[in-house]
C-alpha cells in the first residue's frame, strides 16, 4: 500500500488509476464493473460513426480551422453506452440512499415536478420570443413570485438570480444602491457572524464592503454583547443566516433587526435554510430587508452538479425601489416583462442576467408549492426539524453533540467522541463509504472542531433514519473499541481507495496523458 503524508494508507500502488478492485482478475467485483477513462478505452485512430468527407465547400471559421488531429477516442455505440452506465453506477444519488450532507438539503425531488417542467411551453420556451407568445410562462413566473412574497411577507422579489450566492449578490447590491442613494457612501462595514454561510463575506467584499466578524456565544448563536459593541455610523448592515449554519434558530433575530435599523444599516438574511421554517415563520415579520431563497433547496428542484439553480431574492419596502430588472407585472389579463431600467418604477441597481431566470426551476418550484399547499409546506418544514432532532437524539449517547438542546433542520456533532481513538472526522466519514452511505458534511461549520453536520431532510422515513443511525452508532462504538484499522484504511470496498488528500489538493492532475512506452532492457 502507498502511504500518504499523514502515514495513512493511500491507493494501492498496483490499483488501476480509474479505480478497480484488486482481488479479482477482471478488476470488477460482481455487478460493480471496473471502468477506465474513455480515453483509455477508445482509440484515436477509429470512430464509431462514419462521416462523409467535406464536400469542398469553403470553410467559414475565420482561419481557425483545425491544423492537427483532435485525439478524441473512438468507441462503438455499445461501448459508449456501457462506459457511461458503468460510470453512473459509481455515483451516489438521492434515488439510491439517504444523503446526509448538512447545509445542502439533498432531498427527494418529486417526479411530478419533473413531468410538469417538461411540458411544451415551459421546456421549449425561448427567452427571445415575443412576450405575447409566452403569456403562460410569464404568468407562472408572476404566480411563483406572488407566493414567495406571501411566504416571506415581503412586498418585492427579484426572480432572476441563478443560485444562492447570486441571490446574496443581488441583496447586497440593493443595499449598496440604497446607501449610495442616501449619500452614505462611508457605510461600508458589514457585520458577519461566525455561524454565517461561507459565501456571505465573499459576497460582501465583491460589492465593495469589508467584513467585521461577530463571534458566537456558548449556545452557537450570535453573541449579542459583541454585536452591540460593533454597531456604529459606518455599519452598512448585517448578513445573518437563520436558521444558522450550526442548525440553530437565532432567538434574538428580532432584536438584531431592530438594532441594525436603529444604527442606520440593513438586514440581509441568508435564506439558504428557509426549508426549516417555511410555513412556520415569515422572515418579513422578523425585520429582514433582503433574503435569497434557494428554490433548489426549499422547493425541491434539482440540486448539485453545478446547476441549474435559482435564488430569487425578496426585499423589504425600504429596498424594493432598488430591485433589479427584469421583473414581471400584470396589466389586466396580460403579463408583461419589465426589462429596462427606464421602464421600471423606483431606481433599479441594474440587471444581473441576460434574460429572466431559470424557467425549469420556476416550474418545478411552483409545482412543489401547488401540490403541497400551505399545510403541506408547513408540514415539510416541521418534518425536516423532527427528523434532524430524531438523529440528534438517537446518536447523542455515542457521538458528542456540538451544542446542548434541540436543533432545527441539521444535527451537528463534533469529534470529542473520537478523542484518543486515533480516528479523525475524515476517517469516520471514509468508513461511512464502506457502509454504503455518502459522508455527512465534514469540518463545517468552522466554529466546531471536527464538525460532522447531518441534514436528513423531511423526505426520509423513520425506518431509513433508524438504519442510518444504527450504522453511525456501530461505527462510533467500533472507533471507541480500538478498531482503528477499520477507519484509517477506509474505504476498502469502494473502487477508488484512500487518496492522499493533501497531495490531491496541492497537485491535482487535471489532464490525462497517454502512458509512455517503457524501453525494454537488452538481454
UniProtKB/TrEMBL annotation:
Q: Which Gene3D superfamilies match?
A: 6.20.440.10, Aspartate Aminotransferase, domain 1, Type I PLP-dependent aspartate aminotransferase-like (Major domain)
Taking every annotated instance into account, which residue ranges of this chain make up the domain Aminotransferase class V?
196-304
Q: What keywords does the record list, in alphabetical order?
A: Oxidoreductase, Pyridoxal phosphate
Gene Ontology annotations of biological process type = glycine decarboxylation via glycine cleavage system
Sequence ranges assigned to domain Glycine dehydrogenase C-terminal in this UniProt record = 380-476
Q: Name the chemical reaction catalysed here.
A: N(6)-[(R)-lipoyl]-L-lysyl-[glycine-cleavage complex H protein] + glycine + H(+) = N(6)-[(R)-S(8)-aminomethyldihydrolipoyl]-L-lysyl-[glycine-cleavage complex H protein] + CO2
A Pfam family in this protein?
A: Aminotran_5
Give the Gene Ontology MF terms in alphabetical order. Answer: glycine binding; glycine dehydrogenase (decarboxylating) activity; pyridoxal phosphate binding
The catalytic activity of this protein is classed by the Enzyme Commission as: 1.4.4.2
This protein's GO cellular component annotations are:
cytosol; glycine cleavage complex
**Where is region (Disordered) located?**
1-28, 483-523
NCBIfam families hit by this protein = PRK04366.1
Function description: The glycine cleavage system catalyzes the degradation of glycine. The P protein binds the alpha-amino group of glycine through its pyridoxal phosphate cofactor; CO(2) is released and the remaining methylamine moiety is then transferred to the lipoamide cofactor of the H protein.
- Write down what this protein is called: glycine dehydrogenase (aminomethyl-transferring)
* Species whose genome carries this gene: Alkalicaulis satelles
Amino acid at each position: 500500500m502507498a502511504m500518504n503524508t499523514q502515514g495513512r494508507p493511500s491507493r494501492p500502488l498496483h490499483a488501476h488509476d480509474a479505480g478497480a478492485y484488486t482481488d479479482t482478475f477482471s478488476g470488477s467485483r460482481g455487478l460493480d464493473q471496473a471502468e477506465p477513462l474513455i480515453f483509455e478505452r477508445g482509440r484515436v485512430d477509429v470512430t464509431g460513426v462514419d462521416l462523409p468527407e467535406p464536400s469542398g465547400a469553403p470553410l467559414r471559421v475565420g482561419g481557425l480551422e483545425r491544423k492537427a488531429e483532435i485525439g478524441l477516442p473512438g468507441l462503438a455505440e455499445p461501448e459508449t453506452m456501457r462506459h457511461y452506465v458503468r460510470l453512473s453506477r459509481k455515483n451516489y444519488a438521492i434515488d439510491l440512499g439517504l444523503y446526509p450532507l448538512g447545509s445542502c438539503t439533498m432531498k427527494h425531488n418529486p417526479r411530478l415536478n419533473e413531468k410538469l417542467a417538461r411540458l411544451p411551453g415551459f421546456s421549449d420556451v425561448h427567452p427571445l420570443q415575443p412576450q405575447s407568445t409566452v403569456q403562460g410562462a410569464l404568468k407562472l413566473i408572476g404566480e411563483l413570485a406572488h407566493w414567495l412574497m406571501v411566504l416571506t411577507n415581503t412586498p418585492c422579489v427579484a426572480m432572476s438570480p441563478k443560485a444562492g450566492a447570486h441571490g446574496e449578490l443581488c441583496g447586497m447590491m440593493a443595499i449598496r444602491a440604497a446607501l449610495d442613494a442616501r449619500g452614505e457612501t462611508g457605510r461600508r462595514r458589514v457585520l458577519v457572524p461566525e455561524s454565517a454561510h461561507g459565501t456571505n463575506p465573499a459576497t460582501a467584499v465583491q460589492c465593495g464592503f469589508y467584513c467585521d466578524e461577530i463571534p458566537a456565544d456558548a449556545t452557537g448563536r450570535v453573541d449579542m454583547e459583541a454585536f452591540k459593541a460593533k454597531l456604529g455610523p459606518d455599519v452598512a448592515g448585517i448578513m445573518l443566516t437563520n436558521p444558522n449554519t450550526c442548525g440553530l434558530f437565532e432567538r434574538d433575530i428580532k432584536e438584531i433587526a431592530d438594532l441594525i435599523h436603529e444604527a442606520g444599516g440593513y438586514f440581509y438574511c441568508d435564506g439558504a435554510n428557509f426549508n426549516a421554517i417555511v410555513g412556520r415563520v415569515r422572515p418579513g415579520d422578523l425585520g429582514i430587508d433582503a433574503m435569497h431563497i434557494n428554490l433548489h433547496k426549499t422547493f425541491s428542484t434539482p440540486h448539485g452538479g453545478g446547476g441549474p439553480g435559482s435564488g430569487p431574492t425578496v426585499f423589504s419596502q425600504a429596498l424594493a425601489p432598488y430591485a433589479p430588472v427584469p421583473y414581471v407585472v400584470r396589466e389586466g389579463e396580460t403579463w408583461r416583462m419589465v426589462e429596462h431600467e427606464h421602464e421600471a418604477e423606483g431606481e433599479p441597481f441594474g440587471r444581473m442576467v441576460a434574460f429572466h431566470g431559470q424557467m425549469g426551476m420556476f416550474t418545478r418550484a411552483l409545482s412543489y408549492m401547488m401540490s403541497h399547499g400551505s399545510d403541506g409546506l408547513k408540514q415539510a418544514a416541521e418534518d425536516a426539524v423532527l427528523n434532524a432532532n430524531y438523529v440528534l437524539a438517537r446518536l447523542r449517547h455515542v457521538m458528542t453533540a456540538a451544542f446542548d438542546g434541540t436543533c432545527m433542520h441539521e444535527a451537528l456533532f463534533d469529534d470529542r467522541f473520537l478523542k484518543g481513538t486515533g480516528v479523525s472526522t475524515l476517517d469516520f466519514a471514509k468508513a461511512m463509504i464502506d457502509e454504503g452511505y455518502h459522508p455527512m458534511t465534514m469540518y463545517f461549520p468552522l466554529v466546531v472542531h471536527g464538525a460532522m453536520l447531518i441534514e436528513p431532510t423531511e423526505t426520509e422515513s423513520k425506518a431509513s433514519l433508524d438504519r442510518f443511525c444504527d450504522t453511525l452508532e456501530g461505527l462510533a462504538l467500533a472507533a471507541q473499541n480500538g478498531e482503528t484499522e477499520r477507519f484509517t484504511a477506509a474505504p476498502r470496498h469502494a473502487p477508488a481507495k484512500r487518496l492522499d488528500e493533501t497531495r490531491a489538493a496541492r497537485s491535482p492532475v487535471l489532464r490525462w496523458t497517454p502512458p509512455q512506452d517503457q524501453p525494454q532492457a537488452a538481454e
